Amino acid sequence: MKNPCNKERKRGDPYEVWATPDRSWRWEVLKKWQADDNKPYARWFCDVYSPIMPGGEMGDVYVKDIQEYAEKIA
User: Fold this and answer.
1) What is the pLDDT of residues 36-64, one digit of tens each?
2) Domain count along the chain
3) Long-range interactions of 28-32: CB distance < 8 A, separation 24+
4) Long-range contacts of the stretch 32-40 (C-beta < 8 A, 24+)
5) Distances (CA, A) of 55 to 15, 16, 35
6) Is the residue at 8 inside a domain?
7) What is the pLDDT of residue 46?
8) Does 58 reside within a domain?
9) Would you say residue 5 lies in a domain?
10) pLDDT value, residue 26
11) pTM given for the model
12) Could you list the residue range(s) of the whole structural domain that residue 24 is in?
């Protein structure tokens, strides 16, 4: 299966945006490392905004951790 989100995007132009219900945490997905997000250790390269880092911080995040606490908003 081909990965349509394999090319890294720049900050502000994400493939998807996920956020917690209170919108205090937001993940902007800049790259997906694999086509199947249901794999046990699937990960995304994200720009993460939180109360701790309001300016954002980029890094890899496990998909299951995002999906457990957030919902897709864009």
Assistant:
1) 999 999 999 999 999 999 999 999 999 99
2) 1
3) 28/56, 29/5, 30/58, 31/5, 31/6, 31/7, 32/3, 32/5, 32/6
4) 32/3, 32/5, 32/6, 33/6, 33/60, 34/3, 35/1, 35/2, 35/3, 35/4, 36/1, 37/63, 40/64
5) 19, 18, 29
6) no
7) 98
8) yes
9) no
10) 98
11) 0.93
12) 16-72
